[in-house]
Structures are given as C-alpha cells and as structure tokens.
Amino acid sequence: MTEGKTKGLQALADKRGVIAALAIDQRSALRKLFAQASGRPAEAIPGDWLVEFKERVSAILTPHASAILLDPEYGFRAARARDSHTGLLLAYEVSGYDKSAPGRLPRTLPGISVEKLKAYGADAVKVLLYYSTRDASAINALKHDWVARIGEECQVADIPFFLEIVAYQEGMGEKGIEFARIKPEVVTRSVEEFCNSRYAVDVLKVGVPVSMEFVESSAVPPSRALYTRAEAIAHFRRASHAATLPFIYLSEGVSNDLFVEALKLAAEANSDFSGVLCGRATWQNGVSIFVQRGPAALEEWLADEGVRNIENVNAHLAAARPWHDRTNGFTRSKG
C-alpha cells in the first residue's frame, strides 16, 4: 500500500475508515429508468437529463456520503457539485456489454486512461466486471488479463483500484431462483480469485452473496424462500472469509429496505465488510419525479426521501470494519 493509494482511500472513507459511498455512475441502467418513467426509448433519452439528474443527486446527497462514484461521460458537473469533504471515484469501463458476443466482455472507455481520470480529480478508479466462475476458461482468461492490466495501470499512477464484480451466469436472469441457487458459490469464488495479488486490486465492490428476494423473512414465506436466515448468514460468513482485501457491498438495484436487510445479515454474520457503494437503493425513485415534475421537485424529493434513504443505509454501517484493517497502509483517517 503506497502513500498515493493510502491517500486516495483516506479521501474516500469516513473518520473511522469506513467507506459510506454513493454510486451514480450508471449510464445504460439510468437510461432504462428514464425510459420507463418517460415512455421514450432508452436510446432517445437526452444526455442532458443524465447530466442534470446526477448533478442534483450529488449536490443534495453527498453531504451524507464519504465518497461518490461517477462516470466521465455524464458526471463532471456532478463531481463539481459534490460536498467539499466527499471523495471522488471515477468509472473507467464502457457501460453495459456487447450482447451479440458471449461472456459479457469488458471494455475501457475510449480516449480515457487512469492518468486522465487522476488528472480529472479522481481519488480512485473503478471498473465493473461481469464475472462467473462457470464461464469458459478462455473467456475468464481474457477477463483476468484485462483486470491485471488495469491494476498495473493504477499502480503506475499510484491511485487506488476498485474492482466491482457483478456475479452472473449466461442464460440465467440475475433475479431468478435458478441464479439464486448458485449465487453464493459464484460470489465467494469470484472474491477468492480477485484477491490474488496479480490483479493489484485495492478494494473489491461486490454484491451480497445471496439473492435477498429469496431469504426467509416476514415478507418471504418458507414456501418461496430458498435460504433460511441461518443459511443466508452462513453464506455471508463464507464469502467474507474468502476475502483477503477490503471489500464493500453494492446494492444491486434492490430497494432501500431490502439493502438494509442485507446489511443486517452481514452484521449478524460478523462480515468484515468495509462499507458500501450504494446507488439505486438511494435515488432510483427520484427518476420519475424528475421526468414528470422537473428538477425542483427532484431536489425536494432528494432533500426528504433521498436523504432518509442514505441515512438509513449509513445507520447500518456500525458493524463495518475500517478498510486499513486489511491492508498494510497508514491508519490516519480523514478528519
């Protein structure tokens, strides 16, 4: 852990060393939300809508976040609008994937480099990788090499490297029960793989190791549940034990209440997670407000429900561990 990487991670964490970050680097996913709210095709959504929406979200919610994740395509105004104490992660990957080819292969943004992202003010660089341990070895070899190249680029630039792993399986819907059956294994084995030092990853951003829609609860009867609460906790524990790097949870597009339930399970499992990078669970219900009633109404919604959502997540980070507990970096915190 170099001084530059340590400095970047300190800028992204709170005084305890916990990362309480807001994610709004979505591009294709955000266009889909705008399309649903407006009735327009996703490809017809104006880029200006994305820019303005991100800017308003950043201005109102970053006083409650230790960091914000944005993209260099639509996020620069939002980066400038963030709270002065809020760190900045910038995404390096092209949004989405080529559906005509197998494997959901990743690509970096054309004309962008880690050095450019650092020059733009990033405290860390993030890439998203769709990954399944069950994919063909040739496909995963390409992904392994891609991640390793970015890790090397971040080492040269002396900036933290966040790897977002999105578990999937070709031919399965990520919200379905078939994928829910294999998700614990895919998440845990993916964590094991990318903790390998060849990738030079500093922080893993991962989904929780169960599909929360299938965890037994008052809202999910035993007839529909795939995991009991005890089984879900065991999966959290196994995935945590597989990690030798700091890791944070992403919300995977679930509701705020469901993400909070996941954090409760993580706490019960004594998971060693170092925080969250929470996106749609915080702001997604504001999209229809913005489309139907305009920016002023969005600001009003964000100041009320949006703040309540992010504070609800923050209130469940007491069990999170400082990122530096899993590194040999300095332990000075942002103060």
Helix content: 40-55%
The CATH class name reads Alpha Beta
Low-confidence stretches: 329-335
Strand content: 5-15%
What labels describe this entry?
single chain; 335 residues; alpha/beta; TIM Barrel; 8-stranded parallel beta barrel; 12 helices; disordered C terminus
Explained architecture:
The chain has 335 residues and is an alpha/beta fold. It has one domain: Alpha-Beta Barrel (TIM Barrel). Helix content is 44%, strand content 12%. It has twelve helices and eight strands. It has an eight-stranded parallel beta barrel, surrounded by five helices. Strand 2, helix 4 and strand 3 form a beta-alpha-beta unit. Helix 2 packs across helix 11 and helix 9 runs parallel beside helix 12. The longest helix has 21 residues. It is globular, with a radius of gyration of 19 Å. The chain starts with a helix and ends in a 21-residue tail after the last helix. The C terminus is likely disordered.
Task: Give a quick rundown of the structure.
By secondary structure, the chain is of the alpha/beta class. It has helices spanning 3-12, 28-38, 47-61, 76-81, 114-119, 137-157, 177-194, 229-242, 256-268, 280-283, 286-293, 295-314, and strands spanning 19-23, 67-70, 87-91, 124-131, 161-167, 203-206, 247-250, 275-278.
Topology, pairings included?
Elements: H1 3-12, E1 19-23, H2 28-38, H3 47-61, E2 67-70, H4 76-81, E3 87-91, H5 114-119, E4 124-131, H6 137-157, E5 161-167, H7 177-194, E6 203-206, H8 229-242, E7 247-250, H9 256-268, E8 275-278, H10 280-283, H11 286-293, H12 295-314
Helix pairs in contact: 2-11, 3-12, 7-8, 9-12, 11-12
